[in-house]
Amino acid sequence: MDVAGKTAVIIYDEPLWTSALSDLLEHFGLTVVDTQQADVEGLHSVWRYAPDVVVTQFGGEVGEAGAVRLIVAAREANAGVRCIVVTHDCDQRQVEKAFAAGA
After folding, report:
1. CA–CA gap between residue 62 and residue 17 (Å, rounded)
2. For 41, which DSSP code?
3. Is residue 34 included in any domain, yes or no?
4. pTM for the whole structure
5. pLDDT per residue over 22-53, tens digit each?
6. In a domain, 18, yes or no
7. CATH number of the domain bearing residue 30
8. Rounded Cα gap, residues 72 and 24, in angstroms
9. DSSP 33-50
10. Total domains, the chain
11. Considering the domain boundaries, does residue 90 fall inside one?
């Protein structure tokens, strides 16, 4: 994926992780256009920016259902979006849900 001019939105409820993810994405040339800590605000960002990359979490303020909604909305806003889901658990069911939603 050529990242020149590509944008990203991060929806993650831990500011330290959000900062680290933002730094990492920007290091690789993506422009982080917004960060949010909860799924509802994240949905607004996804619709507003139609980013090329969405990073979210399963759990915390986002939750499983929120993460799935974010992935689906990101795909609707930008069919070519790349969705990355981060989780602290290693629950196969969560992995399957994320992939089924389009991550």
Report:
1. 14
2. H
3. yes
4. 0.85
5. 999 999 999 999 999 998 999 999 999 999 99
6. yes
7. 3.40.50.2300
8. 24
9. EEEESSHHHHHHHHHHH-
10. 1
11. yes
DSSP SS3 for 84: strand
pLDDT for 96? 74
CB atoms within 10 A of CB 50: 19
- What six digits make up the tokens of 54? 């969405």
Indicate the length of the chain as a whole number. Answer: 103
For 28-47, letters b (16+ CB in 10 Å) and e give eebbbebbbbebeebbebbe
Residue 99 is encoded by which pair of tokens? Answer: 């992939």
Which of 30, 73, 78 lies closest to 51, judged by CA?
Answer: 78
Whether 99 and 68 have beta carbons less than 8 Å apart is answered as no
Residue type, 100: A
Residue 44: what residue type?
H
User: How many Å apart are CA 97 and CA 52, to the nearest integer?
Assistant: 21
